[in-house]
Specification:
This protein has a domain at 25-113: SCP2 sterol-binding domain (Nonspecific Lipid-transfer Protein, Chain A), CATH 3.30.1050.10. The chain is 45% helix and 21% strand. The protein has helices at 8-21, 28-32, 71-79, 83-92, 102-109, 114-125; strands at 34-40, 46-51, 54-57, 65-70, 96-99. β2 and β3 form a beta hairpin.
């Protein structure tokens, strides 16, 4: 059953999918990246972070990199796994990045593992 993107039930389901996925064989640069993400929407911001190659709720106080993007763009980047759209949005100023931008560049240089791609497909299937 699909859940609205960024809703509490969506996060619960995503956490369960991540736990069930086991070893995602996350490439080293993705595993090392720690990025706070602020997703803006009419209902207010949603704070998440990327750590160890997965998306989690809340910001980390020690994350060296932060990005801000709107909900539609976040859906494309995090649910549809459309990294090219993220790069284009950054270049167009629709995705604002601060801090250690080397982490973002490193993420763009890595290909997700087959296990990460399979998890992304499962997350997409439960997202309304």
């Amino acid at each position: 059953m699909p859940h609205p993107f960024l809703s509490p039930t969506w996060f619960s389901e995503v956490d369960a999918l991540i736990a069930a996925a086991g070893d995602l064989k996350v490439p080293a640069a993705m595993k090392a990246a720690e990025i706070n993400v602020t997703i803006t929407s009419p209902s207010g911001p949603t704070l998440v972070h990327v750590t160890g190659g997965v998306l989690r709720q809340g910001h980390r106080p020690d994350a060296p990199t932060s990005i801000t993007l709107d909900e539609a763009l976040a859906r494309k980047v995090f649910v549809e796994a459309d990294a090219a759209t993220g790069v284009q949005a950054f270049l167009a100023g629709e995705l604002v990045a601060t801090g250690d931008l080397k982490q973002l560049v490193a993420l763009q240089m890595e290909e997700p593992s087959a296990e990460q791609k399979a998890l992304a497909a499962r997350i997409a299937s439960i997202t309304a």
